[in-house]
Amino acid sequence: MDHLTIGIIGAGYIGREHARCLRLLKPLFDGRVNVAAIADQNPEAAQQAAAMFEIDMATTDTNAVLDHPEINVIFSCLPTKFHLQTVRRAVENGKAVFLEKPFAVSLEDAQEIHRLLTTSHTPHQVGFVLRYAPVYHALKKKMDEARSHSPLRTVILRDDQVFPIKGISHFTDWRSRVDLAGAGVLIEHGIHDLDLFEWLFGSAKRVSARMGNHAGYPGIEDYMEVRFEFADGVAANMIHLWHDIPAHQSIRHFEIFYQQALLTLETYDMHHLTVRDEEAEKTYERPDLFRMVAHDPLFKDLASREDVLFVSDYYAIQDYWFLRNLLGGHSLFPTIGEGLRAFTLAHACYESAKQDGAWMPV
Ligand SMILES: NC(=O)c1ccc[n+]([C@@H]2O[C@H](COP(=O)([O-])OP(=O)(O)OC[C@H]3O[C@@H](n4cnc5c(N)ncnc54)[C@H](O)[C@@H]3O)[C@@H](O)[C@H]2O)c1
User: What are phi and psi of 52, to 5 degrees?
Assistant: First the structure.
């Protein structure tokens, strides 16, 4: 594609986040990228985003954007239930798609989106943004070092978040409605971790899960514990929790145990990676982590942009690669195949939780 003329469907939290990133990145693409329109059923949301991020057209009519003859790229940013209709129309109109996770409220819808995108060969990318977070690439390097001299024993992840109808970034109520969200904390937030686990540690063989619902919204679990068994037999545990502690907003706490090294990470950002091994304990902070990844192919183009890479603006890094690979005709990643894999893992966890933690092959 020579030029990208972008329409954003949804001017809520994530639609605005992409609008911010795209405006930040626009100067890097010599006039070949422009956000032409943003649509939202809430006219004020669309108008405010258009004014804030210099977007020409704000509308309440999503189809006016999806059918717009000059727009050739769609960012799908409505509540989860609506990604299917957005993708269907974008594909019918021959537009490339950036698709936010978790992208469907049921396995059937997820499979249909997969079918639509793959049979039409639509260029697309799924919003598993943590794949672009520099800190996880630094973590991978430390994992490689640890693995070179001692085997992986186990992994523990606690992923917690203020119930996202009250959190700092999330204050709309659709995440408490099963018809719009599909389910609760695992599908809405933990799906990032299901993708991350296989990306970091390899394929899962089977999963077992239990869930709880403290807040009481029907079908919206706010607690999910998952046992993972990888193909090599290593077992891992995840806990996903939505809580009511505004002073503690949202954290991924990782412990990765090798026989002779423990790696811990308690951040989304470029700090606090701690390695303990037979020699010492060392905590890597922002400058150390920056040095570890700045020359990687994924980050070197942005290494001079301290406002992007140094602060670990991983949404901007993710969008940079979407634009760059689309313009260059290169492969986009993660694909809907990887998206469907994470969705399938989540589905198996829900099936297991319904059967009191029975193991499910995946
Ligand atoms: N990748 C990530 O890290 C990430 C982060 C947040 C959200 N998300 C995903 O992005 C999607 C949107 O989440 P959000 O946080 O932006 O939600 P949000 O509630 O902040 O925004 C949704 C917007 O959609 C509008 N809307 C709702 N129904 C509509 C309809 N039928 N037609 C037109 N507009 C409609 C609302 O007015 C609102 O402005 C969800 O699938 C969510 O899971 C991904």
Answer: -70, -35
- The share of the chain scoring above pLDDT 90, in percent, equals 85
pTM above 0.85, yes or no: yes
Q: How far apart are CA 322 and CA 320, in angstroms?
A: 5
Query: How many CA within 13 A on the CB side of residue 14?
Result: 19
Q: For 227, what's the count of Cα atoms within 13 Å in the CB-facing half-sphere?
A: 15
The domain ranges of the chain are: 4-122, 134-312+342-354
pLDDT at 306: 73
pLDDT in tens, 163-189: 888 766 667 899 999 999 999 999 999
Domain 4-122 has CATH 3.20.20.70: no
Residue ranges around ligand 1 (CB below 6 Å):
10-15, 40-42, 45, 62, 77-80, 82, 100-102, 127, 129, 170, 172, 174, 188
Calculate the CA dihedral of residues 150, 152, 153, 157 and round it to 10 degrees.
140
Q: What is the pLDDT of residue 266?
A: 85
**Best mutation site among 100, 170, 268 for ligand 1, i.e. most ligand atoms within 8 A of its Cβ?**
100
CA of 26 to the centre of ligand 1 (A): 23
* Per CATH, domain 134-312+342-354 is 3.40.462.10: no
